[in-house]
Amino acid sequence: MDVRQLQVSAIKNGTVIDHIESKNTFKVANILHIEDEHQLVLVGVNLTSGNLGKKGLIKIEGKNLTQDEANKIALIAPDATLNIIKDYEVIEKKKVSLQDELIGIVKCFNPNCISNHEKVRTRFYVERKDLPRLRCHYCERAMEREDIELL
Amino acid sequence: MVSLKDRDIISFRDFTKEEILYILSLSKEMEEKAHPDLLKGKVLATLFFEPSTRTRMSFESAMKLMGGEVIGFVDPGATSIAKGESLRDTVKIVAGYASAIVVRHFLDGAARLVADTVGIPVINAGDGSNQHPTQTFLDLYTIHKTKGTLDDLAIGFIGDLKYGRTVHSLAYALAHFRSYMYFISPPSLRMPPDLLKELSERGVKFQEITSLEEVSDRLDVLYCTRIQKERFADPIEYGKVKGSYHLSKATLDRSKVKKTLKILHPLPRVDEMDESLDETPYAVYFQQAHSGIPVREAILASVLGVKELD
Question: All domains of chain B, ordered by start, with CATH?
Answer without folding.
Answer: 12-131+292-303 (3.40.50.1370), 133-289 (3.40.50.1370)
